[in-house]
Amino acid sequence: MATDDVKRKLTAIFSADVVGYSRLMGEDELATVQTLTSYKQTMTKLIKHYRGRVLDSIGDNLMAEFASVVDAVQCAVEVQQVLSSKNEDLPQNRKMLFRIGINLGDVIEEGDRIYGDGVNIAARVESLAEGGGVCISGSAFEQIENKLALGYQYMGEHTVKNIAKPVKVYRVPMGPVEEKEKKRPFRGWQKAALAAVAVLILAGVAAALWHYYWRPSTLPIEVASVEKMAFPLPD
């Protein structure tokens, strides 16, 4: 291939595969293929929804590319959430868990396929993810650090096969949705409501203190009046 004919581009690579695929196939090939087909269809729909493009889908692997790292990570998180819900309907030994890796890299594009270290790094980062989890490279993290507040966990630098330099890797936490809701910052109206409640409480406490400790007492005056009336009037 002549240098002038090489088409290069910077893209976000999404790489996914199934954890324990050989075991699943060994136990029940038909059920595994049916589940895999269904899950890949779900992933493909979500990839298209986030403006991505599926590049390859051989065996238990699926590779896609996105013009935006933000889109790629958001898609990966939703994929794992949706597949987690689907797994709830399966027996424990038949649950199918994908691990996903995302990298931003410069690649060679030839027709509908892409090649290069950018693709290889995405696959290596994916292998570091847990089943049902998402890991991203340092180059991808730099693009979304201030755009997606997902609470990333730094996993350090990893030496990966056929890549000269160590790769920084970050884990994207996949906790329950309700936990994320608890950690979500208060909205403006919530802050205002809390401030109003605090003011009312302080006002009530101040009123109680004034009533019991600081309010002037009228008791001495009343006693004095009674004592005066107790003496007989002079002639």
Topology, please?
Elements: E1 7-18, H1 21-27, H2 29-49, E2 52-56, E3 62-66, H3 69-87, E4 98-110, E5 113-115, H4 117-127, E6 134-137, H5 138-144, E7 153-158, E8 167-172, H6 177-183, H7 188-214, H8 219-230
Parallel strand pairs: 4-6
Antiparallel strand pairs: 1-3, 1-4, 2-3, 4-5, 6-8, 7-8
Helix pairs in contact: 1-2, 2-3
- Unreliable residue runs: 176-186
What is the strand tally? 8
SS-derived structural category: alpha+beta
Total helices: the number is 8
What is the strand content?
Answer: 15-25%
The named CATH superfamily of the largest domain: Nucleotide cyclase, GGDEF domain
Helix content: 40-55%
Biggest beta-sheet profile = 8 strands, mixed
CATH fold type of the largest domain: Alpha-Beta Plaits
**Based on CA inertia axes, which overall geometry fits?**
elongated
Mean pLDDT over the residues? 84
CATH architecture descriptor name of the largest domain? 2-Layer Sandwich
Amino- and carboxy-terminal Cα gap: 135 Å
How would you describe the overall organization of this protein?
- This protein is 47% helix and 23% strand.
- It contains eight helices and eight strands.
- It folds into two domains: 3-183, Nucleotide cyclase, GGDEF domain (Alpha-Beta Plaits, 2-Layer Sandwich), CATH 3.30.70; 188-230.
- The chain has helices at residues 21-27, 29-49, 69-87, 117-127, 138-144, 177-183, 188-214, 219-230; strands at 7-18, 52-56, 62-66, 98-110, 113-115, 134-137, 153-158, 167-172.
- It starts with 6 loop residues before the first strand and ends in a 5-residue tail after the last helix.
- The protein has 235 residues and is of the alpha+beta class.
- The model is unreliable at 176-186 (pLDDT under 50).
- Helix 2 runs antiparallel to helix 3 (69-87).
- Strands 1, 2, 3, 4, 5, 6, 7 and 8 form an eight-stranded mixed beta sheet that branches.
